[in-house]
Amino acid sequence: MKRYYPLTQLLAVAGAFVVVTTFAFSSSVATPVDFAVAIGVTIAGLAIAAIAPSERRRAHVGIGLGSAVVGAWTILVTLGIFSGSTQRWLDFAAGAAVAAAGLAAGALAERSQRRALQAADTPAPASSNGFRVAEQDRIVHA
What we know:
Layout: H1 4-24, H2 27-50, H3 57-81, H4 84-119, E1 131-133, E2 139-141
Antiparallel strand pairs: 1-2
Helix pairs in contact: 1-2, 1-4, 2-3, 2-4, 3-4
C-alpha cells in the first residue's frame, strides 16, 4: 500500500500534465512531451497492476492495465499514426482518461484503507495497557 498510493497519484498528475501540454504548447513541442509521459504512464500502469492491494484487487488491476493500454495507445498516436488535430485530440483524451484513472485508483486505495482502519476500531481488552497496534506504522490509543 505504501508504494501503491503514490503511483496512483503519479498517474493522475501525469494525465493532467498531458491535458495541459497538449494545448499549452505547439504540436512540435507537445508531441515529444506527450510521448515521454506516455512511456511513464505505461510503466506506472503496469506497476499499479502488479502491486495492487488484495482488497478489490480486480478493480485495481483493471485500472492499472487500462492505464497501461491507454499509455501504449498514446505512444502509437504520438509516433505518427494520426496527425494534426486528430493526434492532438487523441492525446488530450488519453491524458484526461489517465488522470481520471489515477484519481479513481487513489480513491479506491483510500477507501480500502479506511475500511481496514474501521474494522480495527475494536475496543482494547480490559487486561491491556490501553494501546493496540492498528497498522504496522501507527499506534492508536483505544
